[in-house]
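Q: Tetratricopeptide repeat protein, please. Structure only.
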Amino acid sequence: MTIKPLAYALLATSVLTACSMTPVQQKPVANEPIVYTEPDLSPPFYALNPFNYDQPPVFELELKKASAQPVNKLEVTDPANPSKKLILDSNKLIIPTIDNNQRAMKYAVLAGENEIDITAIDDFLQMVEGKARHYPPQFTDRQERKGFESKLREVSTQLDQLAAHPNASFDILIRAFKASVLGRNLDLGSSYTTKSLGYAQRILKINKEDPEANLWFGFSLSEGGGQKEAQPYLDKAIKLNVQEAYLSSANNYISMEQKKNAIQTLKNYKVKYPSEAEVADRLIQEIEKQGRYNVWQIMKNPAQAQ
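A: Structure for Tetratricopeptide repeat protein:
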């Protein structure tokens, strides 16, 4: 057999190289796991408890109540591995999914029939509220907003499926409503506006006196262009002692170019909540000078102006 010169040369070179290569001692690589740490969320823009700015968020208050309740531990099969068992030893936030026209939060390690563990959903909705309860939403990080939008679509779809039941519980409807308003504020599509109106009507048909429903329906109508229709709901929320209803009402009056009513509402706010006097006075001053067109508008602090 004849080997062509080029092929032979390549073969010879590879053999010589292999024979003359000096072994290289490699340092062992530590087999350490790569740990990915998610970046911290930026601080919320809106107060996390619209009922009372001095109180912790409602979600955190519910968690405290859950932790204070006795725990009935339960052994269950691990859904990820049927051959293993899990011990459930911490209370979760549980709500009924159907046939209940009142708020009916309970605390247990596991949801029962026609119930759902709402802990993770409430946690997420609270985070979105801090950024997007009002329009326009307040994000400083584009990627953070995209993450919220993606997760909100998922959560809203889950709540929509539960709310589709004709006897969906009040607890399910109020969360589906809030998720829809947040979706509208995040510009996820016109369907979120349509859904929010439908949920609001169902909720108020069940309970016209619910403070949260009146606040959310009021400001969502106002920020969607229905200022005249919004005012009665905001007035009712004020009567029901919802702190943020004052600011939403003042914002609504500004939108209707009723400056005197906006200023009077802020004066009433200052009387009701003395700790907010500085905020109210600044808003009044900026409204009088016609420099403010929205309560939630970010304006530079005059003390920091250059």
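A: Brief note, in case it's useful. The first helix runs from residue 5 to 20.
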